[in-house]
Amino acid sequence: MKAFSLFASIVFSQAAAAQSYPSKPIRVIVNSAPAGLTDVVGRLVMASMSQSMGQPMVIDNRTGAGGLVGAEFVAKAEPDGYTIGVVASAITVAPQLMAVAPFDASKDFAAVALLMSTPLVLVTNLNSPYRSVAQLVADAKAKPGQISIASGGNATMTHLLAEQFQAQAGITLVHVPYKGGAPALTDVLAGHVPVYFDTLNTSVKLVQDNKLRALAIVSPQRSPVLPALPTLAESGYPEVQGMAWYAIVAPAHTRAEIVAKLNEEANKALNNPEVRQRMLSLGGTIEGGPPSVPAELIRSEMTRWAKLIRERGIKMQ
Questions:
Q1: Mean pLDDT value of segment 266-278
Q2: Is there a single domain that holds both residue 107 and residue 29?
Q3: Helices (H) and strands (E) in the chain — how many of each?
């Protein structure tokens, strides 16, 4: 009887805690620098969630090691719902390139909500001779190992798509990694490197203003913001797939009731008209849905990129 009373007391106290959650400010670790897309998306959603939940969402930008520093901080935090993270898709890739991984994205996080995804676009500068994917591939086959392709860094989505594209097209390009997407795009615009897989939100205005030429978009369908741009599948390479995405995670073992509350509030924020309008202006797709959506995405992405890393011999540099 005493054991039952103790069990009932624990269950009651947990339920009461969940009902009163949150009762103090929530620390939100963003694993990118301020003004990056992860940060912009995170701040938009957290501002709305803060208003709805009645508690401050305190943004803490923790950068370093391609986002691993901030993500690791979340993975090792107390699983009480008062430290959560806004992370990008790189959390499924970079740890697989390390001798000792700082975390396992499929085991060390409680997935909360998928916020937004954005496709990537194969771009080139205006002085480039390439006006189609076919022209680029033909030139690369005629000049193996002589044409460069930029990336925002080793093992970033911009790099992984470049590797996929080379494998599917049967070409060899020279990978030129930069310390972030901004310097990579700067050099492509200047003509120092001819091609680059850029995120749509970064390149769309440049393409629309005729400052950058887009060759194809990596997406199942054409984008409404660049409707004349063919998909890479239409260009002959349907197996080149990948997107940048942004999600809320909590430390593993965070109670299900708290995860459910955070997920509910995140979806509420994603349905806020002001938030939606701003996120759509970034060129992304608003996601949402239950916690199972980001959880399954993390598992499938880890499997997909592990295979590519193995086959292409990608290493951390």
A1: 96
A2: yes
A3: 10, 11
